Amino acid sequence: MIKRIVLVTLVVFTLFNCSSDDDASSFDLSLLYGKWFRVGLCQQYNSLQLNQDGTYESFFSGSADCNDSAVDVYKYTGTYVVNGDFYTANRLTSELIIDGTDISTNDFEQIDAVTEIIELTETTFKLRTYVERENGVIETIETSEYER
């Protein structure tokens, strides 16, 4: 009877104290928080602010020239989560800040993609966005690099 109680206690203790390593990131996520600027693009209109409470604010034009009047500039806000090394953003608002003369960046089709953190240091934040096709082939859509 004692063996059975000890065994049941051990099983219950094990079930409630095991954690999955799948949720652990290989990066120091405390480095994630703060303002990041997209490398190679106009910093004023291509930035990402990640807050500790899981919210973000982003500006996007896609242009290297801050004086380029052809591109639209958008402000996005929302929430994000990091699970392991994977970053998932949930856009809650999209606001046109500057209405350029060219095609809108919001006119493109949204795809079901995965975004993976591939580098995170005090000064560099790199993301790889990809899709996995039906045939198992992984196709990289974009590699984004940010700096402080």
From TrEMBL:
Record protein name field: Lipocalin-like domain-containing protein
